């Protein structure tokens, strides 16, 4: 028993030998990083980098959303301008039809009733002119003021317009379906 060593477990060098292969990188053979334990400088730098990246991403999203919002507003104003021009020309046509009808009303019902038709044509023509003279922002302000002044009438008008639009769309779809069925 005198030949036995009393140290158990046997004391070895802390650097792994890997079978005597010297080609192993020293970092692999004896790593010095503790992988997040006690390495607060690296953790702080990583957290700062992540926060900066997130902040940059948020700013990019905000910039993109702002740009998209401005494009949408510009498109809405362009469409509103086109609609304003079309509404003005349509109202001019209605006024012309009322003026033309006034002559026929004069012949059939009398001049007094024809004058009513001419007054209606003048009112429509005046309304058309006011629409053409105002820009889109002024028309929107007028609409807001009207809705604030009499919301019940505004809701009624919106419901009536919705009904008319639904009927027009429905008749267009039915006409399209009958055209497809005939083909």
Helix residue percentage = over 70%
* Class computed from helices, strands and strand pairing: mainly alpha
The total count of helices amounts to 5
Number of strands: 0
Main sheet record: none
- Give average pLDDT, whole number: 76
Organism: Sphingomonas pseudosanguinis
Protein name: ElaB/YqjD/DUF883 family membrane-anchored ribosome-binding protein
Region (Disordered): 1-27
Biased composition (Polar residues): 1-17
Q: What would you say this structure looks like, in words?
A:
- The protein has 183 residues and is mostly helical.
- The protein has a domain at 60-152.
- It is built from five helices and no strands.
- α2 runs antiparallel to α3 and α4 packs across α5 (151-182).
- It is elongated, with a radius of gyration of 41 Å.
- Residues 1-17 have a biased composition (Polar residues).
- This is ElaB/YqjD/DUF883 family membrane-anchored ribosome-binding protein.
- Residues 1-27 are annotated as: Disordered.
């Amino acid at each position: 028993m005198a030949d036995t060593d009393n140290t158990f477990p046997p004391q070895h060098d802390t650097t792994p030998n890997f079978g005597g292969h010297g080609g192993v990188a020293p970092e692999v053979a004896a790593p010095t990083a503790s992988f997040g334990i006690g390495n607060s400088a690296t953790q702080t730098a990583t957290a700062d980098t992540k926060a900066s990246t997130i902040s940059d991403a948020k700013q990019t999203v905000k910039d993109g959303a702002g740009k998209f919002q401005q494009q949408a507003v510009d498109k809405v104003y362009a469409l509103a301008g086109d609609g304003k021009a079309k509404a003005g020309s349509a109202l001019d046509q209605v006024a012309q039809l009322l003026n033309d009808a006034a002559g026929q009303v004069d012949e059939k019902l009398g001049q007094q009733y024809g004058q009513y038709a001419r007054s209606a044509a003048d009112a429509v023509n005046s309304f058309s002119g006011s629409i053409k003279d105002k820009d889109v922002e002024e028309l929107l302000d007028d609409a807001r003021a009207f809705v604030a002044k009499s919301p019940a009438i505004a809701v009624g008008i919106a419901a009536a317009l919705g009904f008319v639009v639904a009927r027009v769309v429905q008749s267009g779809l039915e006409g399209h379906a009958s055209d497809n069925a005939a083909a």
